Amino acid sequence: MDRAFTFGIVTDGSPEAVLRLQTIAATIAQQSIPEYEILIIGNCPGLSLPRTRVIPFDETQRPRWITRKKNLITQHARFEHVVYTHDYVQFEPGWYPGWREFSGFHACMNPILNVDGSRYRDWSLFYDASSQGARSYADVGRFENLIPYTETSLSKLMYFSGAYWVATRTLMKALPLDESLTWGEGEDVIWSHRYRARYDFSINPLSKVRLVGKKKDPIFKEIPAARLEKMKAWLSAHPPEPGYGCSDDREVWRAHGHFGDPPSHRAAHMPAVAGAGRAA
User: Fold this and answer.
1) Cβ atoms of 243 and 157 closer than 8 Å
2) Contact at 8 Å (CB) between 145 and 223?
3) Contact of 156 with 241, CB cutoff 8 Å
4) Cα 265 from Cα 258, distance rounded (Å)
5) Is the sign of the CA dihedral 68, 184, 247, 150 positive or negative?
C-alpha cells in the first residue's frame, strides 16, 4: 500500500548539520516514495533541497527547545504519517518498501542502527518505577533495555527515544510533547509514559534507519534472553503499575508535575484521539 509521509527533522542549523541534512535528504529521495515532503525545523539559510520546506526557528527563545520544534512538525505536516527525527538519522535502502507492508499503528518504532550496525535505542524498555520489581527479580541492570523486535508484550514498560519515531498526525495533535521541557529533561520518556497509558507501542522491523555523524551509543544493551523470560514470568504474576522516575530525571519530573501523578490524574488530563483504538 502506498503511503504519503512527512519527514520532520529538527536541527540547530550548524554547518555540520547542514551537511548531514543533505545526506539525509538524499537517502529519502532514494526510497522512490510517490508522495512525501521534508520539513526542517531550524535556521538553514540558503539550504535548498527537493520537496523540502524549512521552518525558521528563533533559537534565542529557549536553548535546545526540541519539544517546541517537534510540535511544529505536527502543526505544519501535510500528511497523516509523520516521521519525527533529528539531523543525525538517515534512511537505509528498503525503508519505504518496508512501510508498504505495514499498517495499523498510532506510534511506531523502526530499528535504529549505530554507525557500526549495532542497535541504538530503538525497541527498548526504560529504567523507571514500573519495571524495577521485574528487573530486581531477574537481575536485569538499569542499562539492559533493548528487547527483540519480535517481543510485543512489554509495551507498558517501554519508551520511544526522541531520536526517531513514526506516528500519525492525529495522535500527535492530541498528544503533543510537553513544551515545558527541553533536550535532556526526559521529554521523550514523559511523552512515552503518557502514550503507553492509552496505547501499545508498535514495531515495524522491516524499515531501518542509521545514525550519521554521531558516535555509537554505548549505554543501552540488550537484555539476555534468559533474564528477559524471567522478567516476563515475574510480570505475569505482577502486572506493571504506572510509575515514574529514574535518578537522572527525578527532580525535573517532580518540578513539572509529572513525578508520581496518580493514574486517575493522568487519565483525566489525557487528550482523546478521535476514532482511535489500541494499536496493533
Assistant:
1) no
2) yes
3) no
4) 10
5) positive
Give 150: exposed, middle or buried? Use CB within 10 Å, 0-12, 13-18, 19+: exposed
Domain locations along the chain: 5-124+143-221+244-268
The mean pLDDT of the chain is 85
- As a dihedral over the C-alpha atoms of residue 210, residue 85, residue 81, residue 222, rounded to 10 degrees, the angle is 50
Contacts 24+ apart (CB under 8 A), 30-36: 30/91, 30/93, 31/91, 31/95, 31/96, 32/96, 33/4, 33/5, 33/96, 34/2, 34/4, 35/2, 35/4, 35/5, 35/79, 36/4, 36/5, 36/6, 36/7, 36/79
Distance CA 246, CA 34 (A): 43
More confident of the two residues 245 and 102: 102
H helix or E strand, kind and range, residue 37: strand 36-41
Distance CA 265, CA 194 (A): 11
When pLDDT is cut at 50, 70 and 90, the band that residue 244 belongs to is low
pLDDT surpassing 60 at residue 270:
no
User: How far apart (Å, rounded) are the C-alpha atoms in residues 116 and 217?
Assistant: 10
CATH class as words, domain 5-124+143-221+244-268? alpha beta
Nearest in space to 88 (alpha carbons), one of 111, 53, 114 = 114
Contact 220, 113 (CB under 8 A): no
In one letter, which amino acid is 42?
A: G
Q: In 3D, which of 132, 205, 192 has the Cα closest to residue 159?
A: 192
Q: Distance between terminal CA atoms of the chain? A: 17
Sheet containing strand 209-211, edge to edge, reads 89-91, 209-211, 112-113
Find all residues with CB under 8 Å of 243, minimum gap 6, and list them: 128, 129, 130, 131, 132
For β-strands 158-159 and 124-125, DSSP reports them as antiparallel
Return the pLDDT at 268.
36
Q: Are 197 and 266 in contact (CB under 8 A)?
A: yes
